[in-house]
Amino acid sequence: MAIDIRKETGRAGTVEQRIVYESGNEMAAYAAHQINYHIMGYFPISPSTEVAQFLDLMKANGQHDIVLIPADGEHGSAGVCYGASTAGGRVFNATSANGYLYMLEQMPVQSGTRFPMVMNLVCRSVSGPLDIHGDHSDLYFALNTGWPIVLCRDPQAVYDMNIIALKLAEDPEVRLPVLVASDGYFTSHQKRRVMTFADREDVLKFVGERPPEGFVHVLDRENPITVGPYMNEPDYINNCYQQSMAMYRAEAVFDRIRNEYAELTGRDYPVLDLYRMEDAEVAVFLLNSSAEIIKDVVDQLRAQGVKAGSISPNMIRPFPAKAIAEALQNVKAVTVGDRADSYGGHGGNMVMEIKAALQTYGNHNTMVISRIYGLGGKDFYAEDGLKLFEYAIDAVEKGHVEKPFDYHGHTPGDAAKAPKRVLEPMKYEDLKTGLITVTPDEETGKLNVRVPPLRSLTKKPKRIAPGHGACPGCGIFSGLELFFKGIEGDIVALFHTGCAMVVTTGYPYSAHKATYIHNLFQNGAATLSGVVEMFQERKRRGELDHLGLKDDFTFVMITGDGGMDIGMGPAIGAALRNHRMIILEYDNEGYMNTGAQLSYSTPMGHRTSTSNVGKAQGGKVFHHKDTAQIMAATNIPYVFTGSEANPQDLLRKAAKAQWYAQNVGMVYGKILITCPLNWLSDDKDGSTIIEQAVNSCFFPLYEVEKGVTTITYNPEEKGKRVPVSEWLQMMGKTKHLSKPEYAETLREFEDEIERRWSRLKAKHENPYL
């Protein structure tokens, strides 16, 4: 709709605009779809995940042509984006926190070879411990990567800066990838009124065509190039110098572009956002969303006769040092709030750069106070802003800064309130029942397992206590507990990031009765490898004798929610080293803990939040990964699949897994579990859905013992095989596959299931396959 921009903003614009009411993530996606990038490589991580979700939904409805490439992890997504940018097109990405750190080594490669792109960093706390809420600890890692960085304090700025950023990145004077940073959950998920270009054509006209000068690419057969050569001195320092000059030019280029944008839209983003700074004597410096809240505090203090003002940059790379020094030249004291610490540096990164700016430009009078605030998503209120001003006012009154560096909003520790143990350690006698026995068969080399009736195992204590926060009907814990019933004695468990981890360990509580470890999403197998080897070595040296261990621990890693995508490399590494441990994958067919995005375990045609169903798309477009077969190819001693719908079978495999893990080497197991929330199924149907997944041969039950494959349950021989379509009809996420327009997808999916099943039967019949 056409509107009067002057009434809305106080400044006239020249293009038709419309008002939407959306979040920061929605506006990042909206800007990207209007630009119609060529490629987006992505990997889900909260709170940036929604950007890819919204783009996928728009793609399903035919609203853009962006090729969305789901990577195996953030490092992979950065590689996808880099490769795409070398091929000459426009590239987009979004990430957060540890995901950004995982791709960090790729960032200087992109900027050092001068290939433009735009990436949204939806700022979030960097682990550890794990916290998914917003601060700037990831943003500060970006400062030395060679990417210009623009900031967004609200969803309107997210939209505008995403359009400005591409024009900045592709300017011949800059030619660098650009980072667009906004605050996770504060800006990313909170809806605000936003004004947008009404027509995509106006966006594309503003952004313009990619300039031909200097923009070489790898697809020009008339001009073959070498990208990323090995470079010695003095060439390397010269390359860095050219990149540095491009970075500093970015400030003036940004200033030119933002003026062009202001003429079009009526919205202006000067390098520094100064609020009532003309005669300010005390000031507060903040980034992003908090900078809007502090303006209300400025007004309150002005009403009381205090000459207060606030400063917030719209760009921090290049750092506007001269502009900040000039803005502070008459200010007696400024409090700099950093939403991340530079541990050991006596302040956060922004305070260090402001101090350097004042020193460089001859301002030796302004007193600087450093405060770390708002970590881990801690809210910032007007009362906090007033306190930041009080630090500055106090310094002016006393003539000196009493405490140059401190945290604001933290709670001092109190030994009397230290967490107390709630769950007592499980007794060894209860865990070592002797009801399950495993004995090697000397003739066949395989294991014979005796498992009692299930009811006799009910007295074994549960490894995970009641009280976790899983969704109703979640199959993770019933599946894990059934597996653990087959394990005798003590365990040490490591959980990958995922639903099972998140819902059981909300500090200061834990639902884990046994020792539990968590490390980064991709690195669980390597971490547990270290634990296993340290146990063996300390045991060999006699350092654990005083603990009175009756048996060795069984070391178990639990993974799921896509953990065997991002964690596949370390898992294969652990398998090839053959550490004595178990990796157990619960397969819920997606990244359920971050909002049901597709993973490589999501089957073809299945609906997720990044494989939507619409007129232009019918669910996931490629087949699911067979992790059990991949791990079997590493020649570890034992691989199995299991299901709680076949409990005796799973118990036998758990007992075998423990024996192999304690006596031979690594074990890999995979169990299919239900996720009613994201499978769009009824809670009560979970067991039936899993049973039919087995009976349709989608999830066959088998084991690979010392390289020999044995099908442990054959629904054809039992007369229980059901059509794949019958199983798919039980879940809302796959009901669309019964429609005529998706008949080809269904046929291809059924053919692949039959192919894998036939191949498995052939392996069952021939020990050499």
TrEMBL record:
Keywords per UniProt: 4Fe-4S, Electron transport, Iron, Iron-sulfur, Metal-binding, Oxidoreductase, Pyruvate, Transport
Keyword RNA-binding: no
Domain spans labelled Pyruvate:ferredoxin oxidoreductase core: 280-384
GO biological process, one term: response to oxidative stress
Gene3D superfamilies reported in the protein's UniProt record: 3.40.50.920, 3.40.50.970
Tree of life domain: Bacteria
Family of this protein: Belongs to the pyruvate:ferredoxin/flavodoxin oxidoreductase family.
Listed name of the protein: Pyruvate synthase
Annotated source species: Cohnella pontilimi
